[in-house]
Hints:
alpha/beta
Amino acid sequence: MAARLLWRAFRGRYRDNRTELDAIAAAIRPTDIVCDIGANKGSYLYWLSRWTPQGRVIAFEPQPELASYLESSFRAPRFANVTVEASGVGGSSGSRSLYLPSKNSPGATLNAKHYPAGTPSVTIPVVALDDYFGAGRQPDILKIDVEGAELEVFRGAERILTERGPLLVFECEQRHLDTGSVFDVFAYLELFGYTGKFVNGRLLSPIAGFSLDQHQRQTGDCFWADKGYCNNFVFQKG
């Protein structure tokens, strides 16, 4: 495994995504099935694999070069529980245009309105999670980073949300949405009996205290990097 990937994984675990990974670590079991949706360069994937030695981790990464990178990085026998799927995840299975503002971009998205006309795109396969898992065992944890397509992912997993009720750890930002609000995503999950918290620094705060004006204020050139900007959420059923 490349040193660069390990560096990203440890930086995520102990700095950038510490609270999110703490939430996963508290819930995950060695035999769990976990999905890393929008795996990008594998910083979550490393830990998910380590924590499920008798389980299974499916990494969905639609950018072809990044999917190939993950395949090569996680092909060692100690990562035999990892499957890399070079596809996106959405509300239905088929094919879609993935918009790429730059090569191997963390901002790649299915949302056409997120970038101006002329933004490069590539046609990718997309799968609904209910189709992918069929009638078999369903995932126990979903980690989701899909740049505004969160509601689509959840709509394509209605059976899983109803029957299995996996832990959900996901990014959701108003700036990524074509229409509607992040509160539409929260309300949709509440229909399935979920309650949520938002990552507030090192704390998980009740979703009732989340405010777009306060926690996703869009002022300044790089407002998403401001201290106090909150874009990650943890939802549990029950």
